[in-house]
Structures are given as C-alpha cells and as structure tokens.
Write a structure and sequence with these properties.
The protein is an alpha/beta fold. The protein is 34% helix and 12% strand. α7 links the parallel β7 and β8.
C-alpha cells in the first residue's frame, strides 16, 4: 500500500529489526511507545514549568513508567504569553540540553533517555517557506499548516472550506524538499486532498499526528475513511488522539473507545499506518484509563486482548512512528 520515498527505511521494526538498539526481548508490559503529540513546550513556554515535569500528564517519571521511547514536541504560539517560534525553540532547546531524560536529536546516539523530536503546529508562524530546511536540521519532523482556524497557508476543517493558498503550496514544496513531512491535522477536505496529491507527486509521506476515525465519531478534526486511506497510501501515519471529544460523543470515552479507533484505522488504512498522538500536556481530557503517560501499557494490553498480534501492537505503539521519522537521509544518518 505504501509509496516508497527515496531513502525511506522500510523495516518490520519488531524483534531484532527494531532500530536504535531497542532490545528484542522487551517484556509485553513494557512495549515501547513513541507519541506523536506531547505538548511539553506549552507547559514550559506558557506556564513556566520544567521540561521534565509539565503538568503531570507526561512528566519524566510517568513517561519512564509507561515505557516511552520517543516523543514529538509540538512548537506553537498559542497565546500572547508564548514567545515567538524562534525564541521559544531556543529556550526549549537549552532546557532539553540540561536534562538527561529527554535526548535530542531523536534518531541518533543510542543511550539512556527518551528520544525527542519537534513538530511545528502551524508553519505560517515561519517567516518564509525558505526557513523549512533550517527547522528540519533542528529536529523538526512534522509541519502543520493550521491550528484553530484558517491560516495564511491553508483552510481549516472549521473554516472557509477552501484549499491551500499559493504560499501554502510553496511551503509544502519546501518542506518536501527539506525531507520534512506535512501534518494534515485540522485541514479542510480540499486542503488535505491537495497536500496528499503533492506528496504523491513528490513520493513522500504525510502524517496526521493527532486525530481519530470520523466514521466512528463525528468531529471536525477526525478523518473520514477516504482520508485515512489517502494518508496511508503516501506511506504515512495516523496518530490516534486521546481527547475524549474526538473518541466518543454523548458519554465519556474510555479505553475501549481508543482501541475501537485504532482497530478501525488499522482495517481501513493498514496496521503499518497507525500510531499514537495522545495530546498529553495540551489540556486534553483523556479517558480515565489513559489519564497520564504511565498508563500507556494499559493500551498495549487492551490491543492484545482485542486480538491484535503482539508484533502489530509494537508497530502501533512505536514501530510505525520510528519508521516514518528515522528514515536514512541520502549520504548521512537520520
């Protein structure tokens, strides 16, 4: 199903083929986790909390207990309290450099600590599309185009319903050329279709870092089955959010709802294209069984109890995300 990108690493990512020295005989209760959306930068930059503490949803202790192997930290300017993108990144980089718990860059130097990458929630915060290569060298893997409404780059799922602007098209091309990946979360149907078409033409993947199945729950940020399949056909990945409103309507969501969404997306898009994008530390209300990062193992056990083979569980919890983020760059290391 996947379209192979130039230099893209395709591996089973289970057992001995796990990258970065991950042990083959990992106990089931400690299945490694890579989370595509942990908003520790929001806690550091807006609320002045420590990078390894946050609000307590995904602090270093709970991340270790939950088996976290890697995190993607979204960079965004959510309010006037947050510094600009450049200043915020530099502050966060310095904070990360002073701790051992979170290691950057995420695909290099095996050793202790949780691998860490960045994403940019809204690339319209960049001064120009020409800045995309710089941010990729800084460890940014994913570039979103909108946050809570239409941006200068694209229309959103709750906005005008258009597509990409000319500046948005230039941004997508620049990100692709820099070996970054476009995050389609929050885009209108038209904008998402344009991004997918450009990704197919460039033979590169797309990603939806935090979403859920629109066929199960009607929510503006959830993706239809057609959209899920389109992202998968680029070789991309769909990260399932833990936000209750995206998982169920009419009652509080529970662990079973997260499992339902993962299994549905696996059926529609293929198990090689499903991952996790919890949204921890962003103010979300997760199911009680997934209240914080220490409870990741409850999800891996629930997937196994629902009949998912252990190798597929490992793909969903971490392997698929590592494949997407740690492809070999031509002439160099990931």
């Amino acid at each position: 199903m996947s379209i192979t990108r130039r230099g893209f690493v395709h591996a089973a990512l289970v057992g001995a083929s796990w990258p970065l020295g991950l042990a083959e005989a990992t106990p089931f209760e400690a299945v490694p986790v890579v989370d595509l959306a942990v908003h520790l930068p929001q806690q550091v930059l807006e609320h002045h909390r420590g990078v390894t503490f946050g609000s307590g949803q995904a602090d270093a202790v709970r991340l270790r207990r939950g088996g976290a192997y890697g995190l993607v930290l979204p960079l965004e300017r959510r309010s006037a309290l947050a510094p600009g993108l450049e200043a915020g990144y530099l502050h966060l980089f310095r904070a990360l450099s002073r701790v051992r718990e979170l290691r950057i860059p995420g695909c290099r130097r095996p050793g202790p600590g949780i691998r860490t990458w960045f994403s940019i929630a809204d690339a319209s915060d960049l001064g120009s599309e020409r800045e995309a290569p710089l941010w990729v060298t800084r460890g940014v893997r994913f570039f979103g185009l909108v946050t809570r409404g239409d941006s200068a780059l694209a229309s959103s799922a709750v906005g005008s319903g258009g597509g990409l602007s000319s500046r948005g098209q230039a941004m997508v091309r620049s990100v692709h050329a820099a070996r970054g990946t476009i995050d389609v979360c929050g885009l209108s149907a038209g904008a998402l279709a344009e991004v997918v078409a450009m990704a197919r033409e460039a033979h590169v993947p797309t990603v939806a870092t935090h979403t859920a199945a629109g066929a199960l729950t009607s929510h503006a940020r959830n993706l239809s089955d057609v959209q899920l399949l389109a992202v998968a056909q680029t070789g991309g990945l769909i990260g399932v959010s833990f936000e209750q409103r995206m998982l169920h309507q009419g009652k509080p969501a529970d662990l079973g709802d997260v499992v339902r969404h993962i299994l549905h997306i696996a059926r529609v898009a293929g198990v090689d294209h499903v991952g996790l994008g919890s949204g921890f530390e962003s103010g979300i209300r997760p199911p009680h069984e997934l209240l914080n990062a220490a409870r990741y193992p409850r999800l891996s056990r629930a997937l196994r109890a629902a009949g998912m083979p252990i190798n597929d569980v490992r793909k969903v919890m971490a392997g698929n995300a590592l494949r997407l983020m740690c492809y070999q760059r031509p002439g160099g290391t990931p």
